[in-house]
């Protein structure tokens, strides 16, 4: 049988109609505000025109689910500083290459002669380290719970093989604390579309705090357009019935308890601390850094980079990425959107990453007048 | 996959190969002439050419592909096909090519010879002659191995008017085959992104296909363009702006090979934005669409040709009916095609 | 976070698997999914299998979508999806 998901127009039309009818049948004229918390969802929603298709009854917001978007200026600067150390190879996922720090980007560092290489996997970076034993290889570890285990696995292998020239700059972050920060920060939301692949690792019980503590339902969604529509349909049903709960709308990939192997690996390799999120500032218990026994493979320790300091992240030049991430404003409401800040010349990470709320809105949703 | 020739120790390009003296002569006689042919008489500073009847057209292009050798071709073949196709997109018959090589010191001579041989084979296959050339050698690291610049000269038949601004609302948009093959074949050869895959560049000369289309179109072909850098979506945007029309396409109608779709999904790329080197977009009068499509499908390079959309009155805007029946804007890409994990 | 694609395991070699889709093949690590077996479909992210897909649930989901069209046939009054506009999202749109 096929695992290929049908992208059929028929079921999509049926779901879109059902969602909009159900939402408009309830009392009150306000659109339902649903936040998706995953850059991959932002991308899929934009790619399939779901925002327009579900409007005006549903208003889809993008939360801080794009790990590139929420990487702070100082973390980017640290990565660029590493790239500028002579003889160092910096390995990175493609997403991070264009992100601006306070002054420059990895792409510009590469143009200036730094050895910056795009990899598909942390294992590729480890392989570079094996093949070039005289060069320091630093893997930039970005991503949430989906990616962190893959980098943890590479760290464990490096330690076992004593591949001492391999290290990781961990910029990994955890999603539940950020969701709490958003809700505690006063974001007005009716429901949350849960990140399908993060949840494949964490299990859907990780989201039970949403209905229990905040009275908000969460539907965990896959990434095909029908998966998303199905999840939104379930979410709207739960909202309308006033029965906040977690719905697993991606049962083929997501279970209640998640991937125990990956979770155990995360605990073995990483410890939890605070982390600086662009736009949200410091979020406690949200950052992952390698445990002391991995010190030799921890780029922050090895290269004596300044530790993340609890405190406010400076916001650059009028950039309102923070408010966009919190769902407080739409991209078009930022004064820089479409003018000083465009995908070609991005100011903040929301515009740099192709799935960032602002870039996605610019590409698929038209431009501000 | 194309085998990269073994590097014999010591047979490297030196700075002296580019400085006009004895080694330059050796390079020309030893590498270029055997493959590209010897002109009658001595090697001159400039070559006389015969043009014949029609309007002369000229184009120039530079080729910087990395890696230099990829499944389905190499920089030499790419240089010929890319230049020939620029001429073909005006409905012209390509006649002559020039080739200027900029080579990095230390580049293996055997690889240079393989590139030149490939260029010669592609030129022969396309029916064009490489009539002038130049070689310069730069310091190690200043060039990515080899850069090639070309000029192409062709003849546009009288009565043919094909140009970017030629589309009208109501015209039909055709594509000559599946998109995304070249860009993905090249990208997946780069370190860290390698898959085992049947991804092969579609690099090919298109003037034969164009001639076949013109013969059946009776003046109905308004625009031709090959969707290279930036892919189909970028080309449609360029044409929409140039012609002052809108374009609406149907996602399900755009042919994409399974392997391209799978590799794109793995890397987080959209085939509509990936480069092609052996495909064309044609915007034709509604009455000519069937005939032109039939002419394309009758030829090897057009077997998978398809009608993918129409030109509309919405000036400059390209939209797409998605595979789930919704609509979205198909915009210009932000920049370089980058794989993502997010 | 995000980009993970279902692929089919066609060979296993210790902690590594060859996975394929649409004719493309790649070696991925099974370190995060030691329970994976030949013939399984796995979600692949950044070079690792991160979950084994549940085939029964996949079938159930497909069946659900097939049913959906029957349960909610297109009605007169269902608007066609409007063309994307330049208005900010949330603005009222004529149907």
Task: Please tell me about this protein's structure.
- Chain A is α/β, with parallel strands linked by helices and 369 residues long.
- Chain A has helices at residues 9-25, 39-47, 50-54, 73-83, 106-111, 122-131, 148-161, 175-184, 196-202, 209-214, 225-240, 260-269, 299-302, 321-325, 349-352, 357-365; strands at 32-36, 58-62, 89-92, 115-118, 137-141, 166-170, 191-195, 218-221, 246-248, 270-277, 281-290.
- In chain A, the strands form three sheets. Chain A has a five-stranded parallel beta sheet. In chain A, strands 4-3-5-6 form a four-stranded parallel beta sheet, with helices on both faces.
- In chain A, a hairpin with a 3-residue loop joins β10 (270-277) and β11 (281-290).
- Chain B is an alpha+beta fold.
- Chain B contains eight helices and 13 strands.
- In chain B, α1 (22-36) runs parallel beside α3.
- Chain B starts with 21 loop residues before the first helix and ends in a 13-residue tail after the last strand.
- The relative contact order of chain B is 0.16.
- By secondary structure, chain C is an alpha+beta fold.
- In chain C, 18% of the residues lie in helices and 33% in strands.
- In chain C, β1 (5-13) and β2 form a beta hairpin.
- The two termini of chain C are 35 Å apart.
- The relative contact order of chain C is 0.15.
- Chains in contact: A-B, A-C, B-C.
Based on the structure given, which CATH architecture of the largest domain in chain B is correct?
Answer: Alpha-Beta Complex
Count of runs of 4 or more consecutive helical residues of chain B: 8
Q: Largest sheet of chain B at a glance?
A: 7 strands, mixed
Write down the domain tally of chain C: 1
**CATH topological fold name of the largest domain in chain B:** Phosphoribosyl-aminoimidazole Synthetase, Chain A, domain 2
Helix count, DSSP H or I runs of 4 or more residues of chain C: 1
Could you tell me the radius of gyration of chain C in angstroms?
20 Å
Index terms:
heterotrimer, B: 342 residues, alpha+beta, 60s Ribosomal Protein L30, Chain: A, Phosphoribosyl-aminoimidazole Synthetase, Chain A, domain 2, 7-stranded mixed sheet, 4-stranded mixed sheet, 13 strands, C: 95 residues, SH3 type barrels, 5-stranded antiparallel sheet, 1 helix, elongated, disordered C terminus
